[in-house]
Amino acid sequence: MTALATGLGPIDNALDAKVLVLNRLYAVIRVVDARRAFALLAKQAAEVIALENGTYRNYDFETWADLGSLQQEFEADDHDWVRTTRVVIAVPKIIRVLGYDRLPREVVKLNRRNIYARDGSRCQYCGKPFPTRELTLDHVVPRVQGGENSWTNLVCACVRCNARKGGRTPAQASMKLIRAPKRPRRNPAIALRLGSPRYQSWKAFLDEAYWTVELT
User: Fold this and answer.
1) Domain topology for 112-165
2) Range with the poorest average pLDDT among 41-50, 154-163, 191-200
3) What's the CA gap between 14 and 17, in Å, rounded?
């Protein structure tokens, strides 16, 4: 596994895949991309946690890499794959950091990505879904009227609805929100990933107490 430890070489988008990170006590601490996960594994600072037939199993990096050929034969569609000059390795869904037992203190960050995720990339006025490049953020109470940047005052809006509303409140513009904006109890980007069968193994570890972990 020298090639992976010293450099990942030619790969595809698999290194952007998301990996859930647990601390030594199996509590969720954050989500990272596969680059960071492989770096921790290569340093032997973490191990892979894999769901197999309803049971979670622990693998060190070498053993996980050795399983690649079998996984590719029988579970090809269940994984993202990283290719080195020597082997093909499945991107793990979960890793456990062996020397860390603290819990995160982050709250869900108020940013454009998380608001889009909370609102499902759907305009909160017309109710239609849009690609993120066609969405804007709207202040329910406009800033010119004292509206602030907050979870309860920012919503997704398509360009047309945002232009129609302008610097008015929804009532002033005779428009209605399809859903009142709220601060999410859980990271909305993580919640979206749980809708994919690939990330079902995360559920057992995402206790309500740890839903505020940051997606990095």
Assistant:
1) DNA Binding (I), subunit A (1.10.30)
2) 191-200
3) 5
